User: Fold this.
Amino acid sequence: MKQECFFCHTKTVEKLIRKFNPPADIAEDFLRSVNSLFGEEWETTNPYLATKIHRLAKEKLSVADLYKEEKFNANKMLLEHYDFWKSLVAGSKNPFLTAAKLAVIGNVIDYGAHSLNEDDIVTQIKELTSNTLAVDETEELFDRLQKAESVLYIGDNAGEIVFDKLFIETIDHPNITFAVRGYPVINDITLDDVKQTGIDKLCKIITNGNDAPSTLLEYCSDEFMEVYDQADVIIAKGQGNFEGLMDEKKDNLFFMLMAKCDPIAGMLGVNKGDMLVRKAV
Assistant:
């Protein structure tokens, strides 16, 4: 584990303790458990370690959905601006590119270690729409979608799902399957977010059957793996899904994300905060 990743994980733990303010003995038990986990799992990759940390948090803090309220509020806030985002796409010279950029920009909403003040989210999203993609393979993605018989779209965060909905509307493909997490973890989307945003009116919905803040294929459900293996195009949103799937050698897999930390930015050859739409290979 890189030292930056260690600090990121410890910051997440610190935020959870401050958020729920448990009694001292429970907080200490949680911290001791996390420290033991660090010692035992130092070589474990970040998505696996984050999964285990959040399982510990839910167990020790006795909270099944650590960011339930924040997720609901993020979805609600961005849905209230949906007509504006939709008009922005419709009025652009390249609606597909604009919708793709918004879907990537939505990845800025994160209640893990890199969270924003909720009041600043809409303002920052509007400001980011003027930025270009550091890696832009949207033309190839567009071409592949036109030829595809089936599409798997792997979602990421709450709030962001509103822009996924807009992008899926813009893609306008008859056979899209939208995948969410099987159980609550951080602010990643579950079936509750699907129901709140109405994205289920646009496409088929499945869960991956797992509680990782990523897509860890060895732990995903048979249903998810069948769709994953058979899809003509796969879109994986967010840094967490990138970390889980970055070693996949599939020329039909496209990542859409913002590089939220220096280690991932360095791995991708971009700067922290850059936005990308790029193929896996």
Remarks:
- Residues 3-20 form the longest helix (18 residues).
